Amino acid sequence: MKMILAALSLIVAAPAAAEVQPAATPTTFEGWINFSGEEFQLVESQNRYVAGTRRPCISGALPRDLQRMSASTIGRQKVRVTGTTMAWSEDLPGDRYEYEGSVVRNECEGALVILGTDIAVIQ
Question: pTM for this structure?
Fold first, then answer.
């Protein structure tokens, strides 16, 4: 969870731009996951998740097939998501980003989103 907060604090000052590119280095994020359409939100602690406090959180998506499979089998569990981050821009067409068939709307309204490549439940 420290990774989420650290990533959020490092990217807050990033300028918005119409051209957004994912960071090249994969990063690992851990948190309690909620799925909303073709997007997920990671919440930092189980207590906040159970209490219905969904923020602070970080939005992201997985490739469409993995996103759909995960949404039907993994929801409401603690997970580890590996992927790259992308600075969010308010200049995106339709206020969304299409990632390998999934749509990121950034419901967490953060300065960055996760473009996931892998997800695993943490036991």
Answer: 0.78
* DSSP tag of 105: -
Are 62 and 102 in contact by the 8 Å Cβ rule? The answer is yes
The answer to whether the CB of 60 falls within 8 A of the CB of 118 is no
Contact 23, 52 (CB under 8 A): no
Tokens representing residue 11 in the block: 């990217």
Q: Which residue has the higher pLDDT, 27 or 46?
A: 27
pLDDT tens for residues 61-76? 999 999 999 999 997 8
* Structure tokens belonging to residue 21: 């590119």
Greatest extent of the chain over all pairs of C-alpha atoms, in Å: 39
For every residue of 16-64, DSSP letters joined together read P-SS--B-SS-EEEEEEEEEETTEEEEES-HHHHHTT---SEEEEE--H
pLDDT at 39 over 80: yes
Task: Tell me 122's DSSP state.
Answer: -
Instruction: Return the sign of the alpha-carbon dihedral for residues 21, 8, 55, 66.
Output: positive
